Amino acid sequence: MLKAITGTKDILPTDIRKWKYLEKIVEEIFTSFNYKEIRTPVFEETALFARSIGEETDIVGKEMYTFLDKGKTSLTLKPEMTASVVRAFIEHSLGKQQSLNKLFYISPMFRQERPQAGRQRQFHQFGGEALGSTSPLLDAEIIIIVYKILSILGLKDLAVKLNSLGVPESRENYKNLLREFLKSSKDKLSEDSKKRLDQNVLRIFDSKIESDQEILIGAPYLIDYIDEESKNDFEVVKNLLMQSSIPFEIDPKLVRGLDYYTKTTFEIVSGKVGSQSALCGGGRYDLLVSQLGGDPTPGVGFAAGMERILLACENEHSFNLTEENIDLYIIILNKDLSSKVFELALKFRESGIIVDYDYLDRSVKAQMREANKFSARYVLFIGGDEFQSGKLNLKDMKSGEQKLIGLDNYQQIIHLVGK
Ligand code: HAM
Question: pTM for the complete prediction?
Answer without folding.
Answer: 0.95
